[in-house]
Design a protein that fits this description.
There is one protein chain. The protein has a single domain, classed as Rossmann fold, CATH 3.40.50. Helices cover about 30% and strands about 30% of the residues. It contains 9 helices and 12 strands. The protein has a 6-stranded mixed sheet with strand order 6-7-8-3-9-10, with helices on both faces. A 4-stranded antiparallel sheet has the order 2-1-4-5, with helices on one face. Helix 6 runs parallel beside helix 7 (about 170-180). The chain is globular.
Length: about 250
């Protein structure tokens, strides 16, 4: 399993957002997509998810063109976890997560779909919330439920748009530990993130975007004071965490 992006450009009208993006990501990797607001992170994720439509033949998953896939097949292979659910849902947590099985089962979920939903809720320690209404949950609970809905789909490519935004420290760690545990040997996880130290703790690879272009790609070695200064416009100290990931401490704006 692998994801290949070749010379991808995207613009909203006359405003360019993505500038000649070329990337290759292997299965089993948890990859952090890093960069300041407006750097193109969400646009890249939504292009991969099919929400936006860049030029054809620029995106390949497992050697096949993503754009050439039928909508239903693409929905089976790719799942996007947004920062926040944009539609107001007055439905139970169980039914909300069960909806993630729709690309696989259609509008009539089977007993197997319900069993997989119950199992996923249990694995994410959400069983006690199954009968609660989604819109009544806290922000941290909602984020874990959004993740459960994507995971029950069993996608090859899991896209996360700021999965820890507005969460307290405990929920940040719980979400990222769940992502880490469910990455698998073949699944590709691409997560747009702001917290560099959190990304350093849980991610294998780092993609730094700057003004819609790739600044650098690689392991912890690409997170340096120079790269942080170039991409974020701040001076920072970069040290090593106990588990080997980079710890980034901003010191002053440049």
């Amino acid at each position: 399993m692998g994801l290949k992006i070749k010379e991808l450009n995207f613009a909203y009208g006359k405003h360019p957002v993505l500038d000649n993006i070329s990337l290759e990501i292997s299965g089993g990797e948890v990859v952090a997509l890093l960069g300041p607001n407006g750097s193109g992170k969400t646009t890249l994720l939504e292009s991969l998810a099919g929400i936006l439509t860049p030029e054809a033949e620029k995106l390949q998953l497992a050697g096949e063109s993503l754009q050439a896939l039928e909508r239903a097949e693409r929905a089976r292979q790719v799942a996007l976890v947004p920062q926040k659910e944009r539609r107001p849902f007055e439905t139970t947590v169980f039914d909300f997560v069960l909806d993630g099985r729709r690309p696989l089962s259609g509008w009539r979920p089977s007993a197997g779909d319900r069993e997989k939903t119950a199992r996923t809720l249990g694995e994410l320690q959400l069983t006690d919330l199954a009968g609660r209404l989604y819109h009544e949950l806290s922000g941290g609970q909602q984020q874990k439920v959004l993740l459960a809905r994507a995971l029950v789909q069993k996608p090859d490519l899991l896209l996360l748009d700021e999965p820890t935004a507005n969460l307290d420290l405990k929920h940040q760690m719980e979400v990222m530990e769940t992502v880490r545990a469910r990455s698998g040997k073949d699944r590709i996880v691409l997560a747009a993130m702001h917290e560099l130290t959190l990304a350093g703790r849980y991610c294998d690879k780092f993609i730094l975007l700057n003004n819609g272009a790739v600044h650098s790609v690689g392991g912890p070695e690409v997170i340096t004071p120079d790269s942080v200064a170039a991409v974020y416009g701040v001076e920072a100290e970069v040290t090593e965490q106990p588990d080997g990931g980079p710890r980034v401490e901003p010191t002053r704006p440049l």
